């Protein structure tokens, strides 16, 4: 299955929740969820206006898994690999899965404020604008560990986008498990995130139940 390249606002409407896939637009009145808070398609408005039947357990588990995939921009096969890795780690499988997803390089770039959304962060990495531990990388799915340093490449800092970003980073608040150094346009992973530090509105237990069927 190829990566989804269609209108991302449809994904939010399908899940019935804001997934924040378009950055600042999601906080404005232009957000599709503010204007059309019902599923896409010719029958979407009708489903949104009338009471639906109670969703089955499978449906709720599937929707939660799909929501997590779409938030982090992960394909099904890769998501399943992350789940397998989560089961091998000590602790709660659901929490381990969210920690793995948060540890992705594109997510860390987004969390540090170098990008307005995760899709944009993925694009910055894939276009070679980001250094990981002093080396250029285009692997947006790289899993980071404590001590890893993420920085904007020296040559890329001359671009207008990053020049404008410098003033924004001064006011950027990052999660406790990260540290940001705005003057150097770099940041460091202090520790792996805890479940409390992951503010995604996800019920990871439903995802575990989906793969445990």
Briefly say what this structure is.
This protein has helices at 9-15, 32-35, 44-49, 57-72, 76-88, 93-102, 105-111, 118-126, 160-169, 204-211, and strands at 130-132, 135-136, 149-152, 178-181, 186-189. It has 213 residues and is α+β, with helices and mostly antiparallel strands. The protein has three domains: 1-53, Ribosomal protein S4/S9, N-terminal domain (Ribosomal Protein S4 Delta 41, Chain A, domain 1, Orthogonal Bundle), CATH 1.10.1050; 66-101 and 197-213, Ribosomal Protein S4 Delta 41, Chain A, domain 1 (Orthogonal Bundle); 104-189, Roll (Structural Genomics Hypothetical 15.5 Kd Protein In mrcA-pckA Intergenic Region, Chain A).
